[in-house]
UniProtKB/TrEMBL annotation:
Entries under Pfam families matching the protein: Cys_Met_Meta_PP
Protein name: Cystathionine beta-lyase
GO molecular function: cystathionine gamma-lyase activity; cystathionine gamma-synthase activity; pyridoxal phosphate binding
Needed cofactors: pyridoxal 5'-phosphate
Length: 384
């Protein structure tokens, strides 16, 4: 049977995977090598230098392509290295329309690196996809979407944006880090490129920094592969192995992240000391209907604002947490809490931040896969 016809849970384990050719190892060996013996110049077995390709990385890249319903996967040394490769498809004068409420590091590479190379970025609220149209002109080459957004949990209608992108012959890239392919498949919804910080849910154990791209189109894959090899920000074999191992349990981890996310979101929403909870699973979330149509469930990322909360108050709450670890990052098995204004989003100017709702008192949770009763008890003592 073709492995590409498998359902998602089976694909996480088997998609693009084959026993190793040398000894039949079921998990791909960690090919910790830079180079490969050749019998005659150019006479090699498919691998010649590990920046260009490495068998452990190939196994991960095949898995990535399979779980995202793509054709080609590319693994990078970090999520930002993957973003870097996408923007290098562009030339000076080209324009990009990006979600306004996005990962701070994505904003930073766009503004502080690529604007210097003459690429123009428009940061746009995309909760209403039609708002994008007015920014499209003949120079527009790429639309960059993050959904759910970080940290405001806005939901963007991927299908609607894809229709707009296709009509105008503009590439659409979706940062699928928060949702993962367990919840949402951007390529099936019409995106051209899926990007991941595999550091987060795909790796799932807070032990690597890895990035990924997945595409369907061969020509686009070739251009990205050229950039990956020419710029060189590849993922090493040990990290490839770890992410591949993480992906094999992605579906069961995500299921629990979603269950716990719901329990924690509902607890916070009922708490008298909480002003506002951002989680796309609530029926009164402005784009709940879109989340429901494009996602299988609502994930384990939640942001909230305490009542009459201040910068100081938010910091006091995250400092009192005991089971939730105060840390950057997300998507690991353990629950983490963060204060975007001083941590992940500190590189975004305060006015820009507040415009998109990232107020000083906002706290972001990555709900892990512990027992939710323990997580709720910890939050309760920290908020009281
Ligand atoms: C972490 C993250 C990135 C950047 O990925 P790194 O692996 O840290 O380089 C990009 N987008 C989102 C949504 C992220 O959470």
């Amino acid at each position: 049977m073709s492995k590409e016809q498998l359902k998602f849970n089976s694909k996480t384990i088997h998609g693009g995977q084959f026993p190793d050719k040398a000894y039949g190892a079921v998990m791909p060996p960690i090919y910790q090598t830079s180079t490969y013996a050749q019998s005659t110049p150019g006479g090699h077995k498919g691998y010649e230098y590990s920046r260009s390709a490495n068998p452990t990385r190939s196994a991960l890249e095949n898995s990535l392509a399979s779980i995202e319903n793509g054709t080609y996967g590319l693994a990078f040394g970090s999520g930002l290295a993957a973003i870097d490769a996408v923007i290098k498809l562009l030339s000076p004068g080209d324009e990009v329309i990006s979600t306004n409420d996005l990962y701070g590091g994505s904003y930073r590479i766009f503004k502080r690196i690529f604007e210097n190379y003459g690429i123009v970025f428009h940061f746009v609220g995309m909760q209403d996809a039609s708002a994008i149209a007015q920014y499209i002109n003949k120079n527009t080459k790429l639309i960059w979407v993050e959904t759910p957004t970080n940290p405001m949990m806005n939901i963007i209608d991927i299908k609607a944006v894809a229709a707009l992108a296709q009509k105008n012959q503009v590439l659409l890239a979706v940062d699928n880090t928060f949702a993962t392919p367990y919840l949402q498949l951007p390529l099936d919804l019409g995106a051209d490129i899926v990007m991941h910080s595999a550091t987060k849910y795909l790796g799932g154990h807070s032990d690597v920094v890895v990035g990924a791209l997945v595409v369907k189109d061969k020509e686009l894959a070739d251009r990205l592969y050229f950039i990956q090899n020419a710029s060189g920000a590849v993922c090493g074999p040990m990290d490839s192995f770890l992410v591949l191992r993480g992906i094999k349990t992605l579906h069961i981890r995500m299921q629990r992240h979603c269950e716990n996310g719901r329990a924690v979101a509902e607890f916070l929403a009922k708490h008298p000391k909480i002003e506002k909870v951002y989680w796309p699973g609530f029926e009164d979330h402005p784009n709940h209907h879109i989340a429901k149509s494009q996602m299988k469930d609502f994930g384990g990322m939640i942001s909230f604002v305490p009542k009459n909360g201040s910068y100081k108050e938010a910091i006091a709450i995250v400092e009192r947490l005991q089971l939730f670890t105060l840390a950057e990052s997300l998507g690991g098995v353990e629950s983490l809490a963060g204060h975007p204004a001083s941590m992940t989003h500190a590189s975004i100017p305060a006015e820009e931040r507040e415009k998109s709702g990232v107020v000083d008192a906002l706290i972001r949770l990555s709900v892990g896969i512990e027992d939710h009763e323990d997580l709720i008890a910890d939050l309760n003592q920290a908020i009281q």
